[in-house]
Amino acid sequence: MILEKNNCLIYQYDNETVQIEAWGKDAVRIRATMNASFTGHDWALEEKPESLGEIQIYDDKDASAVVYANMYSGKNESFGSLTNGKITATVNADGVISFYNQDKKLLLKEQWKRLKDTPSMPLNVYGREFKAVAGDSFRTVSRFIADDDEKIFGMGQYQQKYMNMKGCMLELAQRNSQVSVPFYVSSIGYGFLWNNPAVGRVTFGINGTEWLAECTKELDYLVIAGDTPAEIEETYMGLVGKAPMMPDYGMGFWQCKLRYQTQEQLLEVARKYKSLGLPLDVIVVDFFHWTQQGEYKFDEKYWPDVPGMCRELNEMGIRVMVSVWPTVDYRSENFQEMMEKGYLVRTESGVRIAMTCFGQELFFDATNPDARSYVWSKIKQNYWDKGARLYWLDVAEPEYTTYDYSNYRYQLGSVMEVGNIYPKMYTQGFYEGMKEQGDEMPVNLVRSAWAGSAKYGALVWSGDIVSTFECFRRQMRAGLSMAMAGIPWWTTDIGGFHGARGDDPSFRKLFIRWFQYACFCPVMRLHGNREPQKGFEGDVVSGIGLFGSGADNEVWSFGEEVFEICKKYMFLREALRPYIKEQMLLTHEKGTPVMRPLFYDFPQDKKAWEVDDTYMFGTDFCVAPVMEEDVYERSVYLPLGCSWKDVFSGICYEGGRTVTVDAPMDKIPVFIKAGSKWEINV
């Protein structure tokens, strides 16, 4: 049965209901369930604009339907269609859904493997599959026909060498350094959002695409049609929410290390930056500065005058950022109250422990609005009111000691059903608290995200990665994938986090190359756990003595050559501030990512769709990082459509060609559009 109801196109057969609805500009939302009704959750789609679409229902006996049906499916059959701007969704009498653009080009179609659909294929594999798991929840599968020539970009952050996701199988789950943001842009001309926070997987195979949710009550996805990747991305960001305007401090240089153990250590570093005349906007107080996990306050023994520290830093033009974990130790002074009020993540079986990090901890339940408010009240009292007003939301996945998702439950549902949304709601609590205190441009450095996190000021970094060139190459592609997935604020630990000695010549080369790259990232931030470890003095109950502070990790910590190159790029970043501010305004107003693949700006250039080691930094700069050791020249493809000038040599090149340029240790190949108003001196 195909009918129109409440401005939606409805397909109903037996106990399945499919709802096709216009959703914003050039987009349609599809929901399907075996239950009596839909849940009503909009998940990532929080910014729904008014949109009705045009619905038509055709009977196969209607002569006028024959022509219209042939335009789409080439078959004379009854079906319904919903057109919303540049996209048309159709559903036929068998329930098969297809999507077309304004030129009647097929963009996407469900894959049904039955004899009547495909010759010699009596498999009875359905495009939508529901298998009951418990109560009114199902294990669902959604299948689509694959296009051999299609390229797929986005999906968040996966630690792999691929930027084109075609051929990849991806886990839809959050882990330390893995960020599942299930939106992609296709080279065919559409965008796709899997609007479901359930744990699962997606396979972009050459013989079909398959989305799996292990436990959910309904299928839910969005398809957008657009003529360019930029148009698709901007439509998507308008539906899930665009980032706030990045404040000025976010565009400069940020300093961090494994952790500064004491107030005086941190102040000494800040004073040295200023005495050397170096720019510094943010300095970070990392983990285990607290009395206990889940108490959300400084240990006064080591941080005796936080208001005074913040005043001194502010006078130097430096803001302090404080690490916050969602962990609540059983020994925390807040544990019993949070347990009584239902603010902690539950376990389905076994001992109620979610993480073991120098103690036994549970996570606060970020899906519970009262729990978010409670945690923010502690943050305000112990940090905000004392002058520490920027927050590093670490362990945001959250990082279960054992990633047994089936054993944990939030107020919103089981982790299997809703787990991927946790980092978004974690960030939301801080964003709303900061807005209440008058911060109109909140920024939260956070280790995970989901679709729509950008609207809550999420600045995502790529997690606890290792210090190798191979890992560096993965991060560049991960950052571009995050941008296409709708997370425009993204950064890395310069030099990587784990496994490097500051006196290692090989690491110093890596550090220089990474530092140069970071100059052309949305946020330029130095962090890392350097060897050899030190700083095991102090109390062992809270962890301040159990966990060291790592070796020095400031720009002067790695020898004079490294220091001089770092200074060069720190001041180059300062020179770029007006340009970065203009790009951040585009991010805020239109949803444009600051860094993006070449094809974003040059979609007509077929070669640009193949390049995964060079990217655009804003509208005018083409950046080609050196990501291999002992390499001092680089081949760079320059997109077709304009001329490009090497910012270091001043040599101009025509676009649409590959050039080889020198890349000595102090130079990252960077090109600017010829005639750009943003000429810079280096």
TrEMBL record:
Residues 244-580 form the Glycoside hydrolase family 31 TIM barrel domain. Coiled coil: none annotated. One of its GO terms (molecular function) is carbohydrate binding. It holds the Pfam family Glyco_hydro_31_3rd. Keywords: Glycosidase, Hydrolase. The keyword Membrane does not apply. The keyword Hydrolase applies. GO terms for biological process: carbohydrate metabolic process. Residues 591-676 form the Glycosyl hydrolase family 31 C-terminal domain. InterPro entries: Gal_mutarotase_sf_dom, GH, Glyco_hydro_31_C, Glyco_hydro_31_TIM, Glyco_hydro_b, Glycosyl_Hydrolase_31. Belongs to the glycosyl hydrolase 31 family. PANTHER family: HYDROLASE, PUTATIVE (AFU_ORTHOLOGUE AFUA_1G03140)-RELATED (PTHR43863), MALTASE-GLUCOAMYLASE (PTHR43863:SF2). This is Family 31 glucosidase. It comes from Eisenbergiella porci.
